[in-house]
Design goal:
about 100 residues; mainly alpha; 4 helices
Amino acid sequence: MPRGDKSSYTDKQKRKANHIEEGYEHRGVSHDEAERRAWATVNKESGGGKKSGSGRGKPESHTAARKGGHIAGSSQSHEKRSTAAKKGWETRRKRARS
């Protein structure tokens, strides 16, 4: 089977790759790059093309899907974080005096 041949992938994997590709293109990624990223994601989640036969399947890992969309940092707003920092600073300053 030549590299790039998608015949060993299931219909579900092909649909998933197509959906991921559309999402990348919607965000402005070129068609070729979007396709490459989509198949890389499918391969990471499912371990490549699925082959038929009893007991040959492995569970899918959804690490790539969980990875996206997470914003680093605190869930508090900037103002609340700033207020808490000022309050903590005042407390430490008062305790240092006594």
